[in-house]
Every structure is written in C-alpha cells, then in structure tokens.
C-alpha cells in the first residue's frame, strides 16, 4: 500500500487556475494533496468515485459574519452544502476585538447583530477572551468544521476607542488608540480590517481617517474589506474605496457590490489596470430580510443616530409618540419606501398572512401605510415577521447580471448569509443567500462564462486576495480543501419555490467536501469532523 489516505477517482478536475479541466484522480495524504494524475492505481484507505462530477478546490467565501455563531454551532453546514471550505469573518466593521469579549458582545448587541438574550447567554456560558489571539484559542477549543480567517472591524475599534458612537473625528489620543488596536490585531494574525461605512459608527469616519487606518494594515500585507459608503451613491462609494487603496497602498476588497451598478464594477477593473490590487464580492441574489418584530425593533435602535444609545425601550417609547415616530422614519431605511414590498408573514392569522403593508393598510382604511407598520410594531402582538423587500431585493435582484459584470475577472461570490441566533433562526433570516455559490455558478454558466473561470474566481482569486497561500488550487503540496459537485444538480430553490417560513433551506448537488484532508461532507451528509483551522496572516 502506497500510504494514501484517500483517492478521488474519475473526476472532472477543475484546478482553480481557469485552465481547461481534465479527467483524472487526486490522492490525499494527511492534510495535503499528495498527487494529481490522469490515473492513480495505488490503494488508499478510502476511494471516492467522482465519475460524472466536478472536482474543484473548496470555495472561499470572503463575506461572512459567523464569529459569534460558532460559539454555539461549529458545523458550518450551510457552507459545506455549497462546497465552501473557508470563510472570512469580521466583515462590515464588526469584529471580535478589541478588549474583552463582554465589550464585543455589547457592541454586537447595540448594532443589532445579536439579541439581548444572546449577549447575556454568551457572557454567562462562553469562555472569555481579551484579545485577537485569545478569541482564536476559544474558536479552536470549540472546533471548526471548515477554515475561518478573521478581519479586524473598524466599527468595533472606533466605538471602543472613542467610548461610543461619536459623530466627530477622533481626538489625537483616541486615534492613537484606534491605530494601536489595529497594530495589535494585525500582529496577532488578523488578515486585515473591514469597514461598514453605511453603519454607525464607521460612517462618522471620513476618508482620511480610513486611509490612516489602512496604512497600518498595508504594513502587514493585509486587506481592506469595505461595506462602502453606499448612501453617497454606489459609484461614488466605490471610487472612495479605490482612493483608499491608492493612497494607503492597501489591498482592497469591495464587499457585496450591487449588480445594479455595472459602472462600479468597471471602475474597479480600471483601477486594477492602474495597479491597485482590488477585487469585488457580490451577493448573486437576495430576498428581503425576514425580521421578526423583536429583532426589527432592535435594528431600528442600531441604525438610528438618535436612538442608538437609548436601547430597545427607547424605541418602544418613541413608537408611542408622533415625534418619536418621526425620528424612527428619519433613519429607518430598512423599511424601504414601497410598502407593496414589505410583507407580514409567520403570523398565524390568515387575514393578514403574506399580505403587503400596503394592502393591509387599504383594508384597514389607513391613508399612510407606514403608520400601519409603526402601529404593528407598537402593539402588544409579537407574532409578526416583516419581510422587508419581499421575494427580490432591488439591489440584488433575480435576473442575470449585466454582461460586463459576468465578464469581469475580479468578481467572486460573497454570500453575506444572515445569521440569526443558532437556537432561534426564525428571528432573522433571508431566503436566497444560503445558495449563493449555486446561484452564481448557474447564472454565470448560462451567461457563457466557462466553469473553469467561475471556479477560479471563487477559489484562487479569493485565496490571492486574502493571502491564503496554501489554498485555492488543486496542486500537489497544497492543503486538501476539495469539493466534489454534481453540476447538473447543483442548485438552490428560487423565491417562488421556497417555503418562506423555513429559514434553514440548503443547497443541493455537493456530494463530498474535504477540509484539510478530512471528509466533512459525505454523500451530502454533514459530519462533525472539525478539521477546520483558524487561518492567520503569516
């Protein structure tokens, strides 16, 4: 016996380079790819027959928010079911440092990312950490079913250094603390920093402040991932991201850029040609968020400049007065302007179930549908889930992406999967992102993009962006992160096919996934192999 642990035989090998695929075998020993050949005749402890299937590097998802989820659920099942073997967390300015875990939980609660119940539960039950390295130790002690890299979050850092969400520039002392926290996190292995320039508190930072932060990250060859300042316009905010890259020397990842702004994708491609190392992730399609009443009240708190520090009780109080309602509507962009696209679901009441706010308002004689929405939020009935945007969000619609986006070699998937509490998934969820890689594969194949190129964008391109130097390619000596996918059956239900009351639908068509050489998905079943690693900036 040659000593191979596993051989994948007879597969169509798409290696992540964009070179044409070929039929062959892959042998795995330990956590690495030991051999790739047209035919491998040696024995192994296990043989997987991949005839008729694509064998590719495991996909890399650059835009994930799973850093608190893993404290209660380390299975990463929704990712394995798509063929994903690595995620990057700490996006949109939110991260697990600085200071101790209780500080992080407070920030996450105030920004609507976890509930009050979760904050108290985590503080009571979970191991404590005091810095980036200690969080990594906690994550390792839990075990990971796939690999996870982590970004620092500008929002969490700024909020901590300035003692809250302050709408002003930092003082000299505060900025010194911000830059010190960034330096400390990068020294301990963070892959870079993220911003949420549409969110409190990062939106209070001007471009120059971000450039100064990005310069620290550039020293460590880290990446700057940005939920850009979309409220100034998609193109304008993308140009700001490019400017930050040019002036700081940092590598740039433009997060979840909408396909409704094809000119923004062109601007990124032009910047790359000028020498800016920059790439894009996009959500292939999204429904509106399904947000239960208690979570929606929390989100109103988190996005309102005036109510941010007043807590949930402050929002409930504001709902009771005309002046308070004016404050809520002033900042509550999550409602949208079209009440035909806000639906009430999971009510148990057939008179209103699945109806739009617009239609319910007409039935009840309201002149202003938003007043009905506020009344539902203010009443004593908690059995409402608000589907904000309905089956297709305007910024991530169902139709195919424009040709210039499909042909742009810098575009990868970033699922940005909504992450309600593991024990309460119905409090906040979405109905298409959990199949983002399948949607992207099928949409771009139908658009004429080669399978090999689609795989490259979601493997080696992402690995290059985040400097994951031993992943993203099927190559001898690389880590054995491998997906075996039945492309003919790789799919996820559309918004018209899906049950909107079920937050836990999975993609189909992925048969096997190896993470660091161990089988984590076996004939479509998720195993608790826990062979994932924390990936650090080396």
How does the SSE layout of this entry go?
Elements: E1 4-13, E2 22-29, E3 32-37, E4 44-49, E5 54-57, E6 59-61, H1 77-80, E7 84-89, H2 101-110, H3 116-125, H4 132-142, E8 147-150, E9 152-153, H5 154-161, H6 172-187, E10 192-196, H7 207-219, E11 223-227, H8 234-248, E12 251-254, H9 262-273, E13 278-282, E14 289-292, H10 293-303, H11 311-318, H12 322-331, E15 342-345, E16 355-356, H13 357-364, H14 369-378, E17 385-388, H15 403-406, E18 411-413, E19 428-429, H16 436-446, H17 451-457, H18 460-465, E20 482-485, E21 510-515, E22 518-522, E23 525-526, E24 534-535
Parallel strand pairs: 1-4, 1-5, 6-7, 7-8, 8-24, 9-10, 10-11, 11-12, 12-13, 13-18
Antiparallel strand pairs: 1-2, 2-3, 5-20, 14-17, 14-19, 15-16, 15-17, 20-21, 21-22, 22-23
Helix pairs in contact: 2-3, 5-6, 6-7, 7-8, 8-9, 10-11, 13-14
What would you note in describing this structure?
With 538 residues, the chain is of the alpha/beta class. It contains 18 helices and 24 strands. Strands 1, 2, 3, 4, 5, 20, 21, 22 and 23 form a nine-stranded mixed sheet that branches. Strand 10, helix 7 (207-219) and strand 11 form a beta-alpha-beta unit. Helix 10 packs across helix 11 (311-318). The two termini are 36 Å apart.
């Amino acid at each position: 016996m040659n000593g191979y642990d596993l051989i994948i035989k007879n597969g169509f090998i798409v290696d992540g380079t964009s070179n044409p695929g070929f039929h062959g075998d892959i042998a795995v020993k330990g956590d690495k790819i030991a051999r790739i050949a047209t035919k491998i005749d040696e024995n192994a402890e296990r043989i997987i027959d991949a005839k008729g299937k694509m064998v590719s590097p495991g996909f890399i998802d650059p835009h994930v928010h799973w850093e608190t989820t893993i404290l209660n659920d380390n299975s990463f099942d929704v990712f394995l079911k798509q063929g994903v073997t690595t995620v990057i967390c700490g996006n949109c300015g939110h991260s697990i440092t600085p200071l101790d875990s209780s500080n992080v939980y407070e920030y996450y609660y105030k920004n609507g990312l976890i509930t009050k119940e979760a904050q108290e539960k985590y503080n009571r039950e979970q191991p404590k950490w005091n810095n980036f390295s200690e969080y990594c130790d906690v994550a390792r002690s839990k075990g990971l079913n796939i690999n996870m890299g982590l970004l620092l979050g500008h929002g969490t850092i700024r909020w901590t250094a300035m003692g809250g969400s302050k709408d002003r520039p930092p003082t000299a002392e505060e900025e010194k603390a911000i830059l010190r926290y960034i330096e400390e996190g990068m020294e301990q292995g963070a892959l870079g920093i993220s911003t949420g320039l549409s969110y409190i508190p990062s939106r209070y930072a001007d471009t120059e402040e971000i450039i100064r932060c990005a310069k620290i990250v550039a020293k460590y060859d880290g990446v700057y991932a940005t939920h850009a300042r979309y409220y100034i316009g998609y193109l304008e905010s993308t140009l700001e991201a490019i400017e930050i890259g040019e002036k700081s020397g940092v590598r740039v990842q433009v997060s979840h850029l909408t396909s409704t702004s094809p000119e923004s994708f062109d601007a990124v491609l032009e910047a790359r040609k000028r020498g800016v190392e920059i790439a894009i992730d996009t959500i292939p399609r999204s429904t509106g968020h399904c947000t239960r009443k208690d979570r929606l009240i929390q989100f109103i708190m988190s996005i309102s400049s005036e109510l941010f520090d007043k807590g949930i009780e402050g929002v409930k109080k504001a709902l009771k007065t005309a002046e308070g309602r004016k404050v809520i509507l002033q900042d509550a962009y999550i409602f949208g302007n079209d009440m035909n696209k806000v639906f009430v679901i999971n009510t148990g009441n057939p008179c209103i179930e699945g109806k739009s706010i617009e239609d319910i308002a007409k039935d009840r004689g309201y002149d202003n549908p938003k007043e009905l929405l506020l009344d539902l939020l203010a009443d004593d009935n908690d059995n409402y889930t608000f589907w904000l945007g309905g089956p297709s969000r305007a910024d991530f619609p169902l139709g195919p992406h424009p040709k210039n986006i499909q042909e742009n070699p810098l575009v990868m998937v970033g699922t940005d999967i909504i992450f309600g509490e593991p024990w309460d998934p119905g409090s906040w969820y979405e109905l298409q992102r959990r199949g983002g890689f399948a949607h992207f594969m099928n949409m771009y194949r139908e658009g004429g993009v080669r399978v090999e190129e689609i795989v490259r964008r979601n493997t080696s391109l992402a690995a290059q962006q985040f400097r994951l130097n031993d992943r993203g390619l099927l190559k001898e000596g690389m880590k054995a992160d491998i997906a075996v996918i039945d492309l003919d059956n790789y799919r996820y239900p559309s918004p018209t096919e899906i049950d909107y009351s079920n937050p836990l639908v999975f993609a189909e068509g992925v048969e096997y996934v190896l993470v660091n050489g161990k089988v984590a998905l076996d004939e479509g079943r998720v195993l608790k192999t826990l062979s994932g690693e924390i990936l650090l900036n080396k």
